[in-house]
Amino acid sequence: MGKNDQYYAVARGRQVGIYRTWNECKTQVDGFQSARYKKFPSEAEARKFVADNINVAGSMPKPDVPTVKVGASLNNKSTPSTPDGTRKRKGNESWRSSPAKRSKPDPEVTDPEFIDAPVVYTDGACSKNGKAKARAGWGVYWGEDSEDNAFGPVYGTATNNRGELIAVEKALEKAIEKGLTKLVVKTDSNLLVQSINIWIHGWKRKGWKTATGSDVLNKDVLVKIDNLRQKLKVKFMHVRGHAGVDGNEKADKLARKGAAMYTKMG
């Protein structure tokens, strides 16, 4: 393995993603409470770690599994990080880092093209994420008492990341059904935002392969999302999860209901 054949996966940090150097990774996790990250020799392993662990701290059906529609009423101390995920201590002294600047939990839409666009919140949930008895679901929240609010179990492998993606798929399908021409999708999954806004272009050029030649995870759902967004203009925005953002909290609640419906097939 060459010196540069290393991938730092950040599943919980300032910016979720895959990084090629420890310094880039450290910027995202040093001083971040309950950071979750790990180094891997391949991009595929790093992406799997992010997908399986992105929301771990919070907690095969056929594609025609049920969809439920609802009228929803629904001074930090840390120690410097090291590449292997351990914390440094010198004797009994704890290293103290400066508190990180935090972005707004729910940023406003400032893009002139989308200021008047409808906003929908999407989320995925998975109990026992990454384990054999995992149960995953998706949730879509359009607004208080909206008849379009919906949730359901994922189809395919039960992971949190797949739930996040299927929630977007369902939201775009509903937007097209409603005749919308543009939509703002707010999600607490930075991995999803990066996948749709950045990485998907390279994956398509490579025949849905990663830079290391492995298959892209959840390709089937990503292809559906990519096709759906050709039919309307979509802006994906990241919001902080579990930070009191009403729409995100409601979408999370719906996704958990969807996960409770999951039944493994096959």
Automatic annotation (TrEMBL):
Record has Phosphoprotein as a keyword: no
Keyword Nuclease: yes
GO annotation (BP), single: DNA replication, removal of RNA primer
The RNase H type-1 domain, residue ranges: 114-260
Cofactor requirement: Mg(2+)
InterPro entries linked: Ribosomal_bL9/RNase_H1_N (IPR009027), RNase_H (IPR050092), RNase_H1_euk (IPR017067), RNase_H1_N (IPR011320), RNase_H1_N_sf (IPR037056), RNaseH-like_sf (IPR012337), RNaseH_domain (IPR002156), RNaseH_sf (IPR036397)
EC number assigned by the record: 3.1.26.4
Pfam families (UniProt xref): Cauli_VI, RNase_H
Keywords noted in UniProt: Endonuclease, Hydrolase, Magnesium, Metal-binding, Nuclease
SUPFAM superfamilies: L9 N-domain-like, Ribonuclease H-like
Gene Ontology MF, one: RNA-DNA hybrid ribonuclease activity
Region named Disordered: 60-112
Reactions listed under catalytic activity: Endonucleolytic cleavage to 5'-phosphomonoester
Amino acid composition bias (Polar residues), ranges on this chain: 73-84
Function: Endonuclease that specifically degrades the RNA of RNA-DNA hybrids.
Entry's family note: Belongs to the RNase H family.
Record's protein name: Ribonuclease H1
Species name: Caenorhabditis briggsae
Gene: rnh-1.0
